[in-house]
Design brief:
single chain, 290 residues, 84% helix, coiled coil
Length: 290
């Protein structure tokens, strides 16, 4: 059975995925297969071998490999559904052959009229069985078509959820990158400002200390003034450090808000995957800040 046309593949892409993206796509595909199997009840569509084959796909053969696995599973599924009726058809053919042999063996013993009546009864019985078989086959086709349509719909829905999860993961990564860049720039600017002010203070204090060495009469007064200036500069530095902390906290808060808004619309399965990755990276970043 050829792959179902018209459905968007979760592996369709114009560029080769990274190892991490490949691992995530294969994991999502396996979760979709598990979800479809649950919908099938006891008569599963995918086997453990299909899960293994999906996991073994490589980046160069993602889409075609996935289509082949799904096509193979549908062929097996269809064969299982038709198998009971195939056995019944073979039974009907065998019964018909036995009836024909039985009629042939009695031709020499029955009158032409009796033979004709026997043939008529046999023909009617075969027609009744053939009608029932035709009805059963048509019913099987309808049930199979309905189930295949349901599986296709669920597969397309799962593919759509995978695409949405992939897009959201990219948005979270971009937001995190922008936040980290802004924080790095802020830290660089603060360091440059702090270094410049300390250097200016050092030069200014050096000059004043030289003046004190040459003018002992003003020594006490100048020392007092320098101490006041030093205290004021320390106060300024403290205020700058406090401002930097406030900016860091505001950036962290805005990042959390952005993450919450982006992930709000995700389905339960995608939310679990994205949240786990985001929490892990955030904890690592928090450890580095600490």
């Amino acid at each position: 059975m050829p792959p179902i046309r018209g459905a968007h593949s979760p592996f369709a892409t114009d560029k080769k995925p990274t190892a991490k993206e490949l691992k995530e796509k294969l994991k999502e595909a396996r979760n979709q297969m598990i979800a479809i199997n649950k919908l099938c009840g006891e008569d599963k569509l995918f086997t453990q071998g299909d899960y293994t084959d999906i996991k073994a796909l490589e980046a160069s053969n993602l889409e075609e490999g996935a289509k082949e696995i799904v096509s193979r599973a549908l062929e097996r599924f269809k064969a299982r559904l038709v198998a009971p009726y195939t056995k019944e058809i073979e039974g009907l053919k065998t019964a018909s052959a036995l009836k024909d042999a039985q009629i042939a063996s009695y031709k020499d013993y029955l009158s032409p009229k009796a033979v004709q009546e026997l043939k008529q009864k046999h023909t009617e019985a075969l027609e009744a069985k053939d009608t029932k078989h035709t009805q059963d086959v048509e019913k099987l086709k309808q049930e199979h078509s309905a189930k295949e349509a349901q599986l296709t719909q669920e597969r397309d829905k799962a593919i759509s959820q995978l695409d949405s999860a992939t897009k959201t993961a990219k948005e979270l990564t971009d937001a995190k990158t922008k936040t980290e860049t802004a924080l790095t720039n802020l830290q660089t600017a603060y360091k440059a400002l702090e270094t410049k002010e300390l250097e200016e203070l050092k030069q200014k204090h050096s000059k004043e200390l030289e003046d004190l060495n040459t003018n002992s009469a003003l020594k006490d007064k100048q020392i007092t003034r320098l101490e006041a200036q030093t205290a004021q500069q320390q106060k300024t530095i403290t205020q700058l450090e406090q401002a930097i902390r406030q900016v860091k906290e505001r950036i962290a808060k805005e990042f959390d808000t952005a993450v919450a808004e982006v992930t709000e619309g995700l389905k339960a399965q995608s939310v679990a995957v994205v949240r786990q990755n985001t929490n892990t990276k955030w904890q690592q970043q928090s450890s580095m800040r600490s």
